[in-house]
User: Fold these one by one.
Assistant:
Number 1:
Amino acid sequence: MPDRENGFVFVPERCVQCHACATACRIWRDTERDAPFRRIEWRWSGAYPDVALRTVSVACLHCVAPACVAACPSGALAKRAEDGAVLVDRTLCTGCRTCADACPYDVPRFVADGTMAKCDLCAGSPELREDGAPPCVRTCPTGALGWALRSVEEKRQDEAAVLALLGRGAGRP
């Protein structure tokens, strides 16, 4: 495993709920309507009259130790050694959904043919990554969604932060 891996960084305080990241992903990747690679979730906190709304932009975090990869019985999921990207080989996917059960971020989506699809950091589309960042990041007008080469410890912190924003602990709710 390399000392540093590519990863998303989300700063919720900067998010203005514009959905540009999710829209960019859907347009650039031409994802199926019911299987978006990036989604926006709203999280309410507090009690009246002190309530707050926080938005969370969620896509595959390409985890340091991806639970989906460990759970996949067909070997359809693998973590690419050179940059940490977690990729799915849809020709090997059986549609068993064990990856979905294992993922604490609810990332795996199943498309019309029954196979899993998810964010691949635009790995198959180098023309979309001229500056190194995927379209979802480049489209964010406030810098709430970022892209960085992160240490393993930083990525683990990012993963924990997203789980906290989603109101989840180490496993599924």
Number 2:
Amino acid sequence: MQSPAPLDRLSGILERFRVKAQLHHSGALCGLTHFDAGEGFGYLHVLRRGALEVSHPGARDVPQTLRFDQPTVLLYPTPFTHRFHNPPVEGADLSCARLVFEGGASNPLARSLPPLVALPLAQVPGMDMALQLLLSETDHLHCGHRLLVNRLFEVVVIQLLRWLLDHPHEAGVHPGLVNGMSDARLARALVAMHDAPGDAWTLERMAEQAGMSRTAFANTFRDLVGQTPADYLTGWRVALAQSGLRERRSIKVLAEELGYANPSALSRAFTGKVGVSPREWLAKVAQDNAPS
């Protein structure tokens, strides 16, 4: 019997919701360095050498203080205030990038990740080559340096996401998309929904994709993802609608693509998830992005 083809759990999401990185710093950091959530960026930090103490003022979801004394990667997928404390003489050597998960709060991957993922580099196999090239580029200025460094940071993020899908409990991932994608059966259904959001996805068809009974599928999905399959599908479609609206695509075209009978049906689902109508939401996005 032929074994099933390997399942690509990330491409369908990342093709629709890109992760963008921008080099922020490379080299020694001494004294106090503050990263403010109000700036609107996530961060990826690669501790290359030295010791690093990190504090999270007022945070409840992560330890107030952490200390690292071996090469480590720290991922803050969404804006989260943190500070680096380094003695003036013993500054840590870091490469840091600002991150933006497209879609912001509606990005399904970012929403399902913990506020901080901190891993020793030795714990994530396969990252060596990308990091060697990244650190080489940050040490020497070449043509296309900044563009290449930004892309390499994005590669490192994807490699981290791969690792998280296979080790959700070690990273402290709570119920959500990443947790669901770590289950081989649920992943088949989730990938199918991601790839064809406009299809008629009944509970029975989702369960068939997973190779499970409807009851077992619904219960396992709720336990691992934290919501019902139908609720997740609606959230995925609405997130895609938000992305389409940002691109100035019409609600009519989006409704047809996302499996809704008419624009009104999509608007009702949108309002139920977001709390405001597509028109009101788009006006708020335009206002937030207007020059101050």
Number 3:
Amino acid sequence: MIKKIALLVAVVAISTAAFAQIQFGLKGGVNMGNVKISGGGMSVDTKMLIGFQAGAFANFGINDKLSFQPEFLFQQGGCKFDEDFSDEPLKANMIAVPMMFKYSFDAFKILVGPQFAYILSAEVDGEDVTGEDELDMKKLDYGIALGAGYELENGIGFDARYYIGLANLTKAEETTAKASGIQISLYYTFK
């Protein structure tokens, strides 16, 4: 399924690039991540952990309203736990690759698309939790991002997104850990 989605996105990007206007940009902002953990006889109450995100994007115009915007971002994520579970938060660093389709109503934008992420590191209280242990986290995440934005004529804009993780990030049997997050960014598109 993931391979089919990635192939579809690649085909759209390549075919779009052949006749599209291409613009590049930089973005940065806040990533408020969370990981919901349940199953295996446990229920962990988690809260959002605030981190930052920064990176670059390319925007391929399909027509005057629709464009395809792949992004390459460094993100900080994770979550805070209930004090009964752990006093220390789960802190994760990742490379995220959102592949957004952007529909424009003049300056107002609607965005939706898949997002893939590779977890570079994840730790709780300084201890790596991405190892080979059966309770450790997996390195790959994927899901859907959707949001809205506003862009001025000079190329400065902002967007807000909600990310819904679809991958189970834990190796533990009968347990699920799924990421989610709110991302708010300021960006600049080179004109």
